[in-house]
Amino acid sequence: MTRALAAPGEAAPTPVTEQGRDAWRLDLPGPIELVVDRATAYPLVIRRAGGEVRLADVRLNAPVDRTAFTVELPEGTETSDAGFRRDPLARPLRPGWLPDGFREAETVERNGAVSTAYRRGLESFVVSGGLVFASRDRLTAADRGITVTGDLTPDELVRVADSVP
Q1: Would you give per-residue pLDDT tens digits along the chain (165 residues)?
Q2: Which of 110, 148, 158, 159 is the most buried (most CB within 10 A)?
Q3: Which helix (H) or strand (E) holds 155?
Q4: Where do the structural domains in the chain lie, given as residue ranges?
């Protein structure tokens, strides 16, 4: 989202006030009008020829009751984790450098590969690597096959990847 606001060659954002918040309005191809909160880059309004979507009473980082995310599945429902699972032996891939504001979110393992997600508001990136369990108490790299993908500039992606020990 914030990358779209800073994209070279695109129309410059226009300062506006939306729902009492300082915001930016951006006219995108389509045509689409996007209004985002200046402080958080959270979308407040998306307008298209067919109508508009308005997010109201936006509260970021407000406490949420965990039961709001409880899913009651009908008896007999089959589920799958697509092979991804949290694994206490899978150590997170922790780069030595992170762009300002990014925090480690979660680590998952699948078929010997470990992926660690980092988040900053609505932006995220994932560091993945081919790792092998050598024993229950030791994790060793099979190679330097580190991949970094997500909401970063190309220079930031390379800097993060180069900083993974």
Answers
A1: 445 554 555 668 899 999 888 999 998 887 889 999 898 888 899 998 888 888 887 777 788 888 887 888 888 887 765 555 555 556 778 899 999 999 998 888 777 778 889 998 878 899 988 654 444 333 333 445 788 888 888 889 889 988 888
A2: 148
A3: helix 154-162
A4: 2-54, 103-162
CA count, 13 A, side-chain hemisphere, 130: 4
Question: Residue 114 to residues 83, 87, 99, 157: CA-CA distances in angstroms?
Answer: 12, 9, 21, 17
Give the amino acid at 114: V
pTM of the shown model: 0.46
Residue 136 is which amino acid?
R
